[in-house]
Design goal:
The complex is a heterotrimer of chains A (148), B (87) and C (872). By secondary structure, chain A is α+β, with helices and mostly antiparallel strands. Chain A is built from 3 helices and 10 strands, in the order ββββββαβββαβα. Helices cover 18% and strands 34% of the residues of chain A. In chain A, strand 7 (87-92) and strand 8 form a beta hairpin. Chain A is globular. Chain B is built from 2 helices and 6 strands. Chain B is of the alpha+beta class and 87 residues long. Chain B has helices at 34-42, 82-86; strands at 4-7, 11-14, 18-23, 50-57, 64-70, 75-80. The longest helix of chain C has 15 residues, at 617-631. Chain C is elongated. The mean pLDDT of chain C is 93. The chains are: A alpha+beta (148), B alpha+beta (87), C alpha+beta (872). At the A-C interface, strand 5 and helix 2 of A face strand 8, strand 13 and strand 35 of C.
């Protein structure tokens, strides 16, 4: 993952969808539309809808992650168009996806929120597209290692 | 057809990501006779030139917006969320 | 490196193209022409002409002169039988008098004639053959750049570097073997541009796409780019490249000169000969005649002499009578004499390659002073530089043949005589001439022939070149394979949370859009689909059944104006729905046409839970969002379809089953029909709706998706002792039909209103305002149209969906759904009939397997008409 690209399933993370700007860190999805994503347990802000089970969360990280994604989405993923800690929405392998750019140190990382029913098929598409870049699935242990 | 629509939320995106919602038309009042509703449903201005249209950003922010487009050149002159315009 | 050419092994040197390696090995004939099967050899050596097309690794029509060799390639000739050297079909050129221009229009004037010869023509027509040789991978990719430069020649490289120095993200596309364009093979251009190539490669913000070509410049500066062999796992990659600024630096290409026998093998363009010499160190011949005007021809001759090729003569094109030789050239006959040679080097006109400017909306106009079609008025985000812009290009029309039979179009063997005949027959406009003769319509897309064709047309019609004009440039040019356009095979699948539980049981799947749903299960020893459905049917009616309904659209609706919104979009009233109650919801458009149906449950004062049909979720959500957007109301809709797994437990034993898993009071007293509750089942938080699509006591249970498989297995486990079993969509369709429940989009169509569908009860016209009210009120008074009725067939047989209703020998309607009903012991169904027939007890005829069978109309459900079982 440090040299090529890796893919992890982080669907366990909590997600809330709300129309009023929350007081804690959030991802702006549109005018008056916000998303909160975090490690559980996470309490929902008032008026928010719990969408933890709605979205699967995949983490694609590594120097080649942009190259893998550009085979599956028309979204402009360059550093200028989607800098670290910015988000965007587009189709990925024909399924609507929320892209959260969250680099791990200097390694580019994309958290991909995909409607749960499409997630398995999207995982397969990403693995297939990543074949030429030697994409490897990874677990939480490797993620810890990378962070430290 | 591969022109770009400037989405107020997502920036310039391909028209393929959008669903076309037709011309912006005020609906008749609830007291209007059935004929007015039939016209509203089936008649279009179909301007060769600049017109206001509804677009839905299906593969992006999934919000409705209005765009002012020249139907001859496909140039989108302006796009906005209706709520923003009223303010 | 080695590769296979038919059964020969060919040695290749590093950097070789397939064509260069074959030429070095002695191969001279590379293809057979389209119509007359004349032998053809290398001509342009730059991917512009049709002469080197071969089948490479199973892909037909590959331009071998720009295809790099890699180990183990398998190359085959095409359009030649039995071999390139001996092609039986070359006999056709003796019968060319039978096939004048447009002969197929003139000959096959009656269908019978065409049918007689079609099989034979299909066999010989077309170019290349698609061989079923294993799976090939095609990829798509998307790229974005500030500046895209088409063409990696001198001008293109300069433009790319300049943009890169301004800090722009640049993509440089080149289709040739080496960057640098003619600077790599023309001595007069100075030393090879190695330094500038190195700078390009080193620039961090220049993305270099080599072995790639742009095939179209589309609206909004979208470029279609085809990258060959992007990595060992893929044969082609189609790149959607979006640019802010496009620089057309596609240069100029050399076109042939038209004279008799100008297509003989060994007649080559000067740039082709020089490319072979300098890029591949291959001498195209030993003794050459150079054909061209003095200065240009002299330069070429000198370079060839330096390369070790003997120059026999330099010949002015105006003096040529013909080339001689049978299949390969052996000399040139001019007015002054005959010159023997094994190579004729044509110094043809250089034509600016500016089609992309035209595709972008620019105009291409004839410039009399320069003698060339040049781009004018390109749009502001497209520019042309270098030879493509027309700078330093002059006299692009080659001397025209005085003799009538010389090949103008090499792709489809159109001669100057054919063009003259076509003009004489009245096809005197350049666009009609093109369509009638097919000149400029072949693989070269007019690069080799267009200017000559325009010249002949102008001469024959007595018009100037400017008046004659140019044909329109359209993408794709060059061609692009259908596989690349179609892209990768990935088709998205939507799987419900219980997908693998179904698979474990044994299931036959039903594809519904992207969803996969169980059609019926195979976990029991029944032989046919009918028997399996019947078994599942009996379980539901006699014990209980469990069906996965996770595909239902589910929307979470919150906000102060939620009730107001639901009142507006549905025909029923929801603002007064008390918490804990469910109501059927029917959605119509402004015309009163049914759009969708579902349920609305009020979970709490400020929260509604809305379900939609599986296929209409996106539409319904967009419809609701649209209303919110237009009104500015305070409503927040969240699509929670994927967040909930949903299952419907239905049947007389469903309460006994569920009671084992929950403390929730399930008695009809505290949990009546059309009520909803939030409760825990086996510790899993769930929303329970007491509704009954299949007509039995039952609950639709929604729980968090990650817990759904566990709950599914728990319910089946708890119900085992009562005979509870899973059932699929096929069984559900039968069960709902017995209850006469309508499926929107199956039993209704784009013209159906609720009155016609016999659902007047769902429309509350006393509501102040809702979408479709005016026209529904109008429709309520208008009983003249069709009605959806139920029918029971009076004899054995089951009508097909869509079967005709016949009254007095006239068609009078159609069947929308029909099944054999175990409750009625006869086929039952729904059908559209005239309103006058929509009464209990009326008899209609249905066409079943070609026979007319009697059926009795009913306006009531076929099973439990009073709905007693639902409420038990």
């Amino acid at each position: 993952m440090r040299e090529q690209v890796g893919l992890a399933d982080l669907s366990y993370r909590a997600k809330f969808d709300t129309k009023t700007a929350p007081s804690r860190p959030f991802w702006p999805l549109g005018r008056n539309h916000f998303l909160i994503v975090g490690e559980p347990p996470l309490s929902p802000p008032s008026g928010a809808t719990d969408v933890t089970s709605v979205y699967a969360e995949l983490l694609l990280a590594g120097p080649s992650s942009t190259a893998v994604l550009s085979k599956l989405t028309s979204l402009n993923l360059s550093d200028a168009a989607l800098p670290n800690l910015f988000c965007a929405q587009a189709s990925l392998a024909h399924a609507h996806t929320i892209f959260l750019r969250e680099d791990i140190g200097s390694i580019p990382g994309f958290r991909l929120l995909i409607s749960r029913e499409y997630a398995e098929s999207a995982w397969e598409a990403i693995v297939h597209a990543g074949h030429e870049f030697h994409l490897q699935p990874f677990g939480l242990g490797a993620l810890e290692l990378l962070r430290n | 057809m591969s022109f770009l629509i400037p989405c107020p939320n997502c920036g310039n995106r391909s028209v393929y990501e959008f669903r076309f919602g037709g011309e912006v038309q005020a609906p008749p009042t609830s007291a209007a006779p059935p004929g007015d509703w039939q016209k509203h449903r089936f008649n279009r201005v179909n301007a060769a030139g600049v017109q206001a249209e509804w677009w839905f950003h299906r593969s992006g922010c999934r919000q409705w917006m209005q765009a002012v487009r020249n139907t001859v050149s496909n140039e989108v002159l302006e796009s906005f969320l209706p709520g923003d315009k009223q303010e | 490196m080695k590769f296979r050419f038919h059964d020969k092994t060919i040695e290749a040197q590093p950097g070789d193209t397939v064509a260069a390696a074959l030429y070095r090995s002695g191969q001279r004939i590379f293809s057979r022409s389209f119509k007359y099967h004349r032998p053809r050899g290398l001509l342009c050596v730059s991917g512009k002409c049709p002469n080197c097309l071969m089948n490479v690794d199973g892909i037909p029509n590959v331009r071998t002169c720009i295809t790099p060799v890699h180990e183990g390639l398998r190359v085959k000739a095409q359009n030649a039988y039995p071999s390139l050297e001996t092609d039986f079909l070359s006999v056709t050129q003796r019968f060319d008098w039978l096939m004048p221009v447009g002969w197929y229009y003139k000959t096959f004037t009656r269908p019978a004639m065409w049918h007689a010869v079609e099989p034979a023509i299909r066999k010989v027509a077309g170019l290349g053959e698609i061989l079923p040789s294993g799976p090939r991978e095609y990829e798509h990719a998307w790229m974005h750049a500030h500046t895209v430069v088409i063409g990696g020649g001198w001008a293109g490289m300069q433009a790319a570097l300049a943009a890169a120095e301004r800090g722009e993200q640049v993509v440089l596309i080149d289709d040739q073997v080496a960057l640098g364009g003619q600077a790599c093979y023309r001595k007069r251009m100075g030393p090879r541009p190695d330094a500038i190539i190195a700078r390009i490669r080193a620039a961090a913000n220049i993305r270099l796409l080599q072995n790639s070509y742009c095939f179209g410049l589309y609206e909004g500066n979208l470029l279609g780019v085809l990258q060959r062999a992007p990595h060992p796992g893929a044969s082609e990659r189609l790149i959607h490249l979006r640019a802010q600024q496009t620089v057309v630096a596609s240069g100029a290409y050399e076109a042939p000169i038209v004279f008799p026998n100008n297509d003989l093998v060994g007649v080559m363009l000067s740039t082709g000969v020089l490319r072979l010499l300098h890029l591949h160190r291959v001498q195209a011949g030993k003794r050459a005649v150079v054909v061209g005007k003095s200065l240009q021809a002299g330069e070429v001759a000198e370079e060839l002499r330096d390369g070790g090729i003997e120059i026999v003569a330099i010949v002015d094109p105006d003096t040529i009578l013909k080339a001689t030789g049978s299949s390969t050239v052996n000399g040139i006959q001019t007015r002054t004499g005959h010159f023997s040679c094994d190579l004729v080097v044509i110094c043809g006109p250089r034509i600016p390659d500016n089609g992309f400017v035209a595709q972008a909306g620019g105009r291409i106009e004839w410039s009399e002073p320069q003698g060339a079609f040049l781009p004018t008025l390109p749009p502001s985000n497209v520019s042309a530089v270098g030879d493509a812009s027309g700078e330093a290009v002059a006299n692009t029309i080659a001397p025209l043949p005085t003799s009538k039979r010389a090949f103008v179009c090499l792709c489809s063997d159109v001669t100057s005589a054919d063009l003259c005949d076509a003009v004489a027959e009245g096809f005197n406009h350049i666009e009609t001439l093109k369509r009638y003769t097919t000149a400029t319509m072949g693989p070269c897309q007019g690069r080799m022939c267009q200017l000559s064709a325009i010249g002949v047309c102008a001469r024959e019609t007595g018009r100037s070149i400017g008046e004659t004009g140019m044909t329109t440039s359209r993408p794709p040019n060059p061609g692009v394979s259908l596989g690349a356009l179609a892209g990768p095979k990935h088709h998205p699948l939507r799987r419900t949370p219980m997908h693998y539980a179904h698979q474990d049981l044994g299931v036959v799947w039903l594809d519904m859009g992207d969803w996969q749903r169980p059609r019926y299960y195979t976990d029991h020893l029944a032989a046919s689909e009918e028997e399996r459905v019947l078994l599942e049917y009996r379980a539901v009616r006699e014990a209980a059944g469990l069906i996965d309904v996770s595909t239902l659209g589910k929307l979470d609706v919150r906000g102060a104006d939620s009730g107001k919104l639901l009142d507006k979009v549905y025909t029923h009233r929801f603002s007064d729905l008390p918490p804990g109650r469910v109501r059927y919801a029917l959605m119509c458009d402004e015309g009163g046409i049914i759009l969708d149906d579902g349920t609305v449950s009020r979970i709490s004062e400020d929260r509604y839970f809305v379900t939609t049909t599986s296929g209409n979720l996106d539409f319904v959500q967009q419809w609701l969002e649209w209303q919110i957007c237009a009104t500015g109301w305070d409503v927040h809709i969240t699509n929670v379809t994927a967040g909930y797994g949903a299952m419907n437990l239905a049947g007389p034993k469903s309460r006994d089953t569920l009671r084992k898993l929950t403390e929730c009071d399930l008695s009809s007293g505290s949990f009546p029909y059309m009520a909803c509750r939030e409760a825990k089942i086996k510790g899993i938080p769930a929303i329970l709706l007491r509704i009954g699509f299949v007509g039995e006591t039952g609950w639709e249970i929604h729980c968090p998706a990650e817990s759904a498989e566990g709950l599914w297995r728990a319910i089946l486990g708890a119900g085992h002792e009562f005979g509870v079993r899973p059932f699929g969509v096929a069984t559900q369709r039968l069960l709902r039909l017995e209850k006469r429940h309508v499926i929107v989009g199956v039993d209704t169509d784009a013209l159906t209103n609720p009155y016609e569908a016999d659902m007047a009860w769902a429309v509350k016209l006393d509501k102040k305002e809702f979408i479709g009210k005016t026209l529904l009120a109008h429709a309520a008074k208008d009983r003249s149209r069709e009605r959806l009725v139920g029918f029971v067939l009076q004899s054995p047989g089951v009508p097909e969906d869509g079967a005709a209703v016949v009254v007095d020998g006239q068609p009078a309607g159609r069947v929308t759904s029909a099944r054999y009903s175990p409750a009625q012991l006869a086929a039952v169904g729904l059908a559209w009939v005239k309103t006058s027939l929509a009464q209990d007890g009326v008899f209609i005829d249905l066409r079943v397997n070609g026979e007319l069978l009697k059926a009795k109309v009913t306006m009531k459900p076929f099973y439990d008409p009073e709905g007693v079982r639902l409420r038990q």
